[in-house]
Structure formats: structure tokens, C-alpha cells
Specification:
6 helices, about 170 residues, mainly alpha, about 0% strand
Length: about 170
């Protein structure tokens, strides 16, 4: 099979699927209360047959392509008013998560994610504060060790400093 014939076949498939999309949208507009997705599909197949005098045999291709942006149904009801009822998307064993736009994040979730995720500078600042606290503890411990190791009698200020450092360490 040459490259040109593959392109021709793909074009024909796309053309027939495009025509069926129109038939399916017409069937959706004609959908009555109590009709399910199978009834709409049968009506779309009938409309396609009546319009083009051939049976639509590319249902598998339409099912693959129908959730793509190009093929999504965006019809408006009479008088350009959107239908109040949401259109039921037919899913073949899979959820249509990627079919529509993503749901926006809620206020509480946004605030929680901001608290969890801090900017790089804030994280670096916290690390620096942690290092400074550790350095402060080490220097206080060294001062206390010097005061405890001193054999001469301690002055009043040294004694109060020693007691303060000991209380902080415990």
C-alpha cells in the first residue's frame, strides 16, 4: 500500500466520521425524555443512512475520536439558549476525565497547598535559621563547659550565667 492511498483512506474515514458527528448531533437535538444513549445512537445511524444512503460502519473510529476537541459537540438548543440538561457522555469502560476542562482547585485546598509548599527562598531561610539555632546551642554549651571547668571561684555574673545556661539545657 503506498503512502498516497493511506492518506486517501484516512481522509475518507475522517470525512465519514465528520458526517456522522453531524448526524449524532441532530439525534441529540431530537432526543426525547426517556431515551438513553443507545436510542440516540440508533437515531443517529438512521439519520446518517437517510442522508447519505450508506450504512455507517466506522462506529469504532467515532468512539475513539468523539472526545477530541475537534469532534466535541457544542450545539446550542433553539434560540441560542444552552440546554439546561447536561449531555450524558457515553464512556466505553473508562471515565471521561480528560474530556472536559479540569475542575478548579477549591479555596481551602489552595490555602493548604500554599502552607505545604513554600517558595525556595523561604526553605533556604528556614535552613539558615536551623543552622543558626544549632550554632547558638553549641556556643552556649561551650560557655557552660568553660564555666564548669573553671577552678577559680565564679563571680556573681558568672554564677547567674551558669545557672541560666543549665536551666536552658534541661
Amino acid at each position: 500500500m503506498c503512502f498516497d492511498s493511506v492518506i486517501c483512506i484516512n481522509y475518507c474515514v475522517a470525512l465519514l466520521v465528520c458526517k456522522f458527528v453531524g448526524s449524532f448531533e441532530a439525534a441529540l437535538r431530537e432526543q426525547r425524555s426517556g431515551q438513553n444513549d443507545d436510542d440516540v445512537m440508533k437515531a443517529a445511524l438512521d439519520i446518517f443512512y437517510n442522508d447519505y444512503s450508506i450504512k455507517f460502519t466506522l462506529e469504532h473510529a467515532w468512539r475513539e475520536l468523539r472526545h477530541d476537541k475537534k469532534w466535541c459537540s457544542t450545539f446550542l438548543a433553539k434560540d441560542n439558549v444552552k440546554d439546561k440538561r447536561k449531555q450524558a457522555l457515553e464512556v466505553d469502560g473508562e471515565e471521561a476525565v480528560g474530556a472536559g476542562e479540569a475542575r478548579p482547585i477549591g479555596v481551602k485546598a489552595a490555602k493548604a497547598s500554599i502552607k505545604r509548599k513554600k517558595s525556595g527562598r523561604e526553605e533556604e531561610l528556614e535552613k539558615i535559621h536551623g543552622i543558626m539555632e544549632m550554632k547558638d546551642k553549641i556556643s552556649k554549651r561551650k560557655v557552660l563547659e568553660r564555666l564548669l571547668a573553671k577552678t577559680d571561684p565564679l563571680s556573681e555574673m558568672e554564677t547567674s550565667l551558669k545557672l541560666k545556661l543549665m536551666s536552658e539545657m534541661l
